[in-house]
Amino acid sequence: MCAASQNPSTPYLPQESSTFRLTELPIEIFKQVLEHFVKDSGMARTVRLRHVSKLFAREVNLAICSTRLLETRAWRFVKVEHEFFTEYLVKRFQKLPNEEDKLSSAVREAVAEAVKLDGHSNNRTEYTRILWSAAVREMSPLQIFGCINPEALGTFNTMTPGYYEVSNSLVAAAALLGKSQIIDSASRSELSISNQFFGFPLTCAAAAGHQHLVSIILAQIGNDSGRIDVTHALKAAASRGNAHMVKLVLEKYLPLTSEDSVCLLRNAVAGAAGGGHGHVIYLLLNSTTKGNLSKCFKYPITATCDLEYRILLAAA
Asked: What InterPro entries does the annotation carry (predicted)?
């Protein structure tokens, strides 16, 4: 048992290290976290104790942390959709003189169709994928903006249902791929991308570890931060164990109302614990709760959270 668990008044500050283990957390805090999540899953007491005892006896494998799963899934998604885009859309314009024209025409047609879709259509994900593929193909910001400019869409304008979703999905794609030039151009263009849509791009940038883009997007949002849901972005940064990126988001959005702070904190703590990042857990706890874990878990957390999944996986 570590010294901090024997003397509660002694702060326990694990160092930022890829070898940090969940089992190095103070016993009191670790047991509270485990009990909260395992209880929430509805396990019988004997099963719960068995899982807890197993987890104490073995290290959580950082190679399967949620951040890496997220990254792998995202990049596989981009690759598959890029192939789909090339096969079924770009080939429709084979007679055009060069590859650049074919790509621009394919994107333009796809976006023109996308803005016609009903707001609840499942096809909304399709044009997001198309724009991701365009970003993968290294289209310049000018080319992409030419495809989604209202004038290029004929009778469509910025009030057309789906227009904002199309333009903002581009920002999300650029954030995931680390293309700061596209994001910077988008913020300066006439697309008038509403700040309320920057929550998802912020999450993409944080999940992919693009710290400079997190700073750029936060600066773009400016004082309109109250309209942005940063819950997933903060959790993504915490899951990566990037304390500086966590601080960037916290400094922008705290202090919030008490309930908002708890909601942000509990999800971020789950992400940090799922990746075994103890230094981030303490950063989060000390940011608003002064180390009071019970306040962090005042409200129930869903049974599908990352930490519970990691607990069950490690105990299997």
From this structure: Ankyrin_rpt-contain_sf (IPR036770)
